From TrEMBL:
InterPro entries, alphabetized: DnaJ_domain, J_dom_sf
Biased composition (Low complexity): 177-186
Cellular component annotations (GO), alphabetically ordered: membrane
Protein family (similarity comment): Belongs to the TIM14 family.
UniProt-listed SUPFAM superfamilies: Chaperone J-domain
Family annotation (PANTHER family): GEO10507P1-RELATED (PTHR12763:SF28), PTHR12763
Keywords recorded for this protein, A-Z: Chaperone, Membrane, Transmembrane, Transmembrane helix
Name of the molecule in the record: J domain-containing protein
Keyword Chaperone: yes
Entry-linked CDD domains: DnaJ (cd06257)
Amino acid sequence: MNPLGLILLAIIAGGGLLWLKNQPPANRTRAALKVALLMIFLGLLFLAITGKLHWLGALLAITLPFAQRLLPLLLRLLPFLQRIFSANRRRSGQSGKQSSVRSQMLAMTLDHDSGAMDGEVLSGSLQGRALSTLQKEEFLQLLKECRASDADSARLLETYLDKRFGSEWRADDQDAQDQNSDTASSGNMGEDEALEILGLKPGASREEIIDAHRRLMQRNHPDRGGSTWLAARINEAKSLLLKD
């Protein structure tokens, strides 16, 4: 086979893959189909130019009887494969749940699967900013404002900072107070807030509450690097909803 032709096909394939990588995720399936069709067309053209197209005809003649036997089997398996695909879609739809925790100055979200946290500043000099966009100096300023006006907001922000920066940020925290800000909760939790913390909807069953609590504690237990304060809020939410 002509090495120059193979090199040309490889260059075209590489360009196609690079183009495919740069496509928006929503368009990649259609783009991949276009690249595949283009490569098939170029491959057939290459075989025709080099006089090797008859090999393709011989290959098709050999595989056609096997394809005729496999096709009915694939058709019988199709409903089974569809059930598997639907089950996977349902499972993936159940994942990605988020819990919400709200204080006077912050609205936080916690992803159940990854344990990642993000949030928005609700009041103060940084109102409207997403926490993921703040720099360390801005975090320290926000923490100072939280400590001055709302203890729950300060605890919540400290939990976020511990998850994002570990304990390193505390070395720059000149305004740290000599108190254990990771222990008690506010004691004012309502049912709506408890449902938001566990990522549940009104009317959740006992099993759903226990499952959500277990999943969150696996990610946020203090023994695994989680915040004692956040773990206390999760436990409080479970107790309130189960009327323990």
